Amino acid sequence: MAFTLPQLEYAPAAFPAFISEKTFSFHHGKHLQTYIDTTNKLVAGSDYEGKSLEEIVMTASGPLFNNAAQAWNHEFYFKCISPEKKEIPAALKALIEQNFNSVEEFKEKFIASAVGNFGSGWTWLMQTGPNKLKIMNTSNAGNPMVDGFTPLLTVDVWEHAYYLDFQNRRADYLKAFMEYVNWDFVAANLK
């Protein structure tokens, strides 16, 4: 079965103080669609046909990895945000405080890591073991799953994710992103 563009769980115009409808139309409707279309072309007639994006990300290399991982990363990213402000569930909050001293310190470290993520890529909050959380930057299509870690939260720091709205002000984009994190989704990813 071919991969298809997932529906957003919110309207593209739901984030006027964060990401514009125009950015969503390019980012989700065109950019992600291209990764999905290319992945479909690359898996057709190959040993990867019928496998999930996650299975492909874990075992592929080269152009297939790049496109499948970018499709997976983008789908995950769009689930990491919500137009409604969310409280952090208690168990996740306790785990963040255990690993980063406070939620505010976590946010500061996450933003600083993402600002310092050179070039194009992703910044992740991931689970590295029982009760262990870590912030990690990946370049290009990188994904912490390939290193055996569990992604909990990601932010896209490729310029296409924010440039129409924030131009070169990546830090402002990241501060706004933290206001719209879907903490319920983040908590649901804990193992």
Automatic annotation (TrEMBL):
The residues covered by the Manganese/iron superoxide dismutase C-terminal domain are 91-188
> Which reaction does this enzyme catalyse, per its entry?
2 superoxide + 2 H(+) = H2O2 + O2
Name of the protein described by the UniProt record: Superoxide dismutase
What EC numbers are recorded for this enzyme? 1.15.1.1
Tell me yes or no: is DNA repair among this UniProt entry's keywords.
no
Provide the alphabetized UniProt keywords: Iron, Metal-binding, Oxidoreductase
Q: Name one GO molecular function term.
A: metal ion binding
Q: Which SUPFAM superfamilies match?
A: Fe,Mn superoxide dismutase (SOD), C-terminal domain, Fe,Mn superoxide dismutase (SOD), N-terminal domain
Q: Which organism is it from?
A: Candidatus Avisuccinivibrio stercorigallinarum
